[in-house]
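Appendix B. Chain record.
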Amino acid sequence: MKKKRSLVKGILTTVAMAAILVPVGVHVGRNVNMRPRAESVFISPPAVDVKVLQRASCTVKTESGSGSGTFIAGLDQVYVITCAHVVAKAQVSDKVYNDVDVVTLIVEDGREVGSAIFKARVVAASTNYDCALLVIRSKAVGAPGVKFAPVGYVPSPGDAITHVGSPLGPDLTASVLTGNISAVGRVVDRQVFDQTTVAAFPGCSGGGVFNSRGEYVGMIARAAGPGLNLLIPIRVVREWADTEDLGFLFR
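C-alpha cells predicted for this chain:
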C-alpha cells in the first residue's frame, strides 16, 4: 500500500511540473519521431460539429513560446481564454497590443487555405488559477464564439470530451483530439483540476475542451503522459472570472 501511495504521489508531482508550452524555435516538419503516438484505446467519434470548434480555436504566441486558446464573443470585442502560463511573460495592459499574437486558420469550402495573425493584449491573468483572458485588437476576426456548459455543470468520469488545440505549435493549429473524463476534482498544488485521457502535447495548454453537446467545459493545462492529463474545468474558470469582474463573459 505504501509503495502504491508513493507511486501515485510521484505521478502527481510529475503532473504538477509539466507545463505544456512550445518553446520558441520548435517547428514541425516531416520527422516522424515528432508525430503524436496513436492511442490504443478506441474512442467513439464526437457527435459535435467539429468544424465550428476548430474555427473557435487559435494558437497564442508570445516571445517565450506558444500555446492554445479559444475565442469568446463579447458585447463589442473578441476575447480569447487561455492558460496564464502561456502568456506568463506578456504584461497585463489596457492598451499595449504588442506582446501576444493570435493565429487562426482560414478555411474556404471546408479546406484550410492559410492562416491569419491578430494582435492581442492580456486583459487579466492569474497564476493561482492559471487562467488568462486576452482581447483581440481587430474586431474582424470572423471566428465564432463558443457556448459554455450551464452554471453548476460538473462532468462525470467516463464522459466523452473533445479537445481542440495546437500540439507542437502553430503548424498544427486546430487539431482535434478525443478522450474521456477519468476523474473529477483532482487537487494538485492546491488547484482543482479534472483528469482526462485526452492526449496533450507541448502547445496544447489553454486549448478548449468540449462535451458531447459542443459546450465548453474547460481547457487543457498540464500533461504527464498518455492517459494522465489535467484540465482546468469551467467551474474554476468562472470562479476566477468572477474575481476579475469578468464573469459575464462565461454565462
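Further analysis of this model is presented in Appendix C.
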